[in-house]
């Protein structure tokens, strides 16, 4: 089963606006190195990328030391555009599940369909893990979970217990 641990603090920016706006799309690509993701997708990684959160919201990942510059660029490039950009780096924690079995650890806790045919590399889901809201995706040889920092210790314990309980053998 995978090793479960907090990652280094991530740089995270919530960006709300018209995701079809050319200026927004150009700026997101410049900041993350990839295009605005399609519905239920993530382009990039937790180190640098963008996740689809809703029809008018993205979660941008940038290195923590680049958040201020990224917000400044969003403010400059999108001046006059109806958007909201906010640093949420301290709002959410990230947990890494590294190693084989990460999908099953998540599936035991989430109502989302995490079968390989429904959830693969580049897919992003907002879901529940036990009693908490979380965003999940596959990354490297495992998975990542973002959740509110206020419930991060609970999420870590929940994921570790799921991993320790062993495989069910469904996937």
From TrEMBL:
Its EC number is 1.5.3.1. Keywords: Oxidoreductase. GO terms for molecular function: sarcosine oxidase activity. SUPFAM superfamilies: Folate-binding domain. The keyword tRNA processing does not apply. It is an enzyme of class 1 (oxidoreductase). It comes from the Bacteria. Pfam families: SoxG. This is Sarcosine oxidase gamma subunit. It comes from uncultured Rubellimicrobium sp. The lineage of its organism: Bacteria, Pseudomonadati, Pseudomonadota, Alphaproteobacteria, Rhodobacterales.
